[in-house]
């Protein structure tokens, strides 16, 4: 059976070695409560359970610290915890608890992000950004569609262009710059072309 061959405690954490190799970093108090000590033998199942129990307080603290800076999508937070070295079962348990507590809600996250970004970016760009943040595509698409459902995309794009190019100039060169500016912000080709035309010829929405 796997055997604990070392346990080094420091600042409330216990670095545990099993069969001569580093195994995991656990909350020191939990490790003590579990009776982990050099020479203790545990089954594979016992090791898995001990790891989740010992990692969970540390992973929860890390997750709350990350969420303290700004809201995160569940996928992004999962990636952060996995990169920190926590076991899949530990990460799953922490995310489940955060959902129960109301700290994780991808639907709300996506709606808030779409609303914040809608003043600067178009729907396609916002959809890409949400998916990069780890939001499920269907959830992201619903949030974007909801945000833009009552808006005229052309007018939103025109307003964005006016904030950037409020010069009164009309020229082919400016129209090309406007088209590129809006395209980079995720507006559709048709919308970019229509707003660019206004900067070339003048017209409604000047």
UniProtKB/TrEMBL annotation:
Question: What are the RecX first three-helical domain coordinates in residue numbering?
Answer: 59-98
Domain RecX third three-helical as annotated: residue spans: 151-195
Which Pfam families does the UniProt record give? Answer: RecX_HTH1 (PF21982), RecX_HTH2 (PF02631), RecX_HTH3 (PF21981)
Q: Where in the cell is it found?
A: Cytoplasm
The UniProt entry, under InterPro entries, shows: RecX_HTH_1st (IPR053926), RecX_HTH_2nd (IPR053924), RecX_HTH_3rd (IPR053925), Regulatory_RecX (IPR003783), WH-like_DNA-bd_sf (IPR036388)
- Report the GO terms under cellular component: cytoplasm
- What family is it from? Belongs to the RecX family.
Alphabetical keyword list: Cytoplasm
Q: Where is the RecX second three-helical domain?
A: 105-143
Q: Which protein are we looking at?
A: Regulatory protein RecX
What is the annotated role of this protein in its UniProt record?
A: Modulates RecA activity.
Q: What is the native source organism of this protein?
A: Rubrobacter marinus
Q: Which GO terms describe its biological process?
A: regulation of DNA repair
């Amino acid at each position: 059976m796997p055997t604990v061959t070392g346990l080094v405690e420091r600042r409330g954490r216990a670095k545990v070695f099993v069969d001569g190799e580093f195994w995991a970093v656990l909350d020191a108090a939990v490790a003590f409560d579990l009776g982990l000590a050099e020479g203790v033998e545990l089954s594979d199942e016992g090791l898995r359970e001990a790891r989740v129990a010992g990692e969970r307080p540390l992973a929860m603290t890390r997750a709350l610290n990350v969420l303290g800076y700004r809201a995160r999508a569940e996928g992004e937070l999962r990636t952060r915890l996995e990169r920190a070295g926590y076991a899949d079962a530990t990460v799953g348990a922490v995310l489940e608890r955060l959902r129960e507590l109301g700290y994780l809600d991808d639907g709300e996250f996506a709606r808030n992000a779409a609303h914040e970004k809608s003043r600067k970016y178009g729907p396609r760009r916002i959809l890409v950004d949400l998916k990069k943040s780890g939001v499920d595509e269907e959830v992201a698409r619903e949030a974007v569609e909801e945000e833009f459902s009552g808006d005229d995309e052309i007018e939103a794009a025109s307003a964005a262009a006016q904030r950037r190019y409020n010069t009164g100039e009309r020229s082919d060169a400016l129209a090309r710059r406007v088209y590129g500016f809006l395209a980079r912000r995720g507006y559709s080709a048709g919308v970019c072309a229509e707003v660019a035309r206004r900067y070339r010829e003048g017209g409604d929405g000047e």
